[in-house]
Amino acid sequence: MDKEQLSQIRYLKSEIEILKKQIADVDYKIATDSVKGSDPYFPYNERSFTITGINFKDYNRRVRRLQRKLNRRIEELMDLVEETNEFIESIDDSLIRQIIALRYINGLSWGQVAASIGGGNTADSVRKVAERFLMKN
Q1: CA separation for the pair 132, 59 (Å, rounded)
Q2: pTM of the entire predicted model
Q3: Percent above pLDDT 90 for the chain
Q4: What is the DSSP string of 11-54?
Q5: What is the DSSP string of 59-128?
Q6: d(CA 69, CA 129)
Q7: Contact between residue 47 and residue 37 where contact means Cβ atoms under 8 Å apart
Q8: What is the DSSP letter of 2?
Q9: b/e per residue, 44-62, with b = 16+ CB within 10 A?
Q10: What is the Cα–Cα distance from 41 to 103, expressed in whole angstroms?
Q11: What is the pLDDT of residues 43-74, one digit of tens each?
Q12: Which of 11, 38, 88, 102 could pair covalently with 113 via S-S, beta carbons 3.0-4.6 A apart?
């Protein structure tokens, strides 16, 4: 597993949030139509009526399409997270395991990773440790 594959987790999470927002922001479209009809009482004069309402068919179609896309991305993310967790579990060094998990699974910045680990580590030091490890593997 390399840096690019690990970075995909963050990008997939971001894409999932974008899709969720798109689903939440889908607007109803107002549809208007004219029909002919008559008064319900004698003399039954024919006249035109304007009907206005929400086009649920179009709305539901757009939501279903976005939901399918979201479900595919969530499945991709779950597969990638599972694969990444297996990779991380196979790392012998505890420090490297923590760095990789905090950065790529939890999505922390290098500074946040260094602060989480403590021990006087800096953002550059944890980044370099991770990059060296990933270049070797």
Answers
A1: 50
A2: 0.64
A3: 45
A4: HHHHHHHHHHHHHHHPPPPEEEEEEEEE-SSTT--EEEEEEEEE
A5: HHHHHHHHHHHHHHHHHHHHHHHHHHHHHHHT---HHHHHHHIIIIIS---HHHHHHHH-TT--HHHHHH
A6: 36
A7: yes
A8: -
A9: eeeeeeeeeeeeeeeeeee
A10: 74
A11: 888 889 899 988 888 889 999 999 999 999 89
A12: 102
26: buried, middle or exposed (CB in 10 Å: 19+, 13-18, 0-12)? Answer: middle
CA distance 89 to 97: 7
- Burial status of residue 133 (CB atoms within 10 A of its CB: 0-12, 13-18, 19 or more): middle
Distance of CA 53 to the CA centre of its chain: 32
Residue 120 to residue 94: CA distance in whole angstroms: 16
Tokens 């999470």 correspond to what residue? 13
Residues 53 and 41: their CA atoms lie apart, in Å, by: 26
**At what angle are helices 110-117 and 123-136 packed, to 10 degrees?**
100
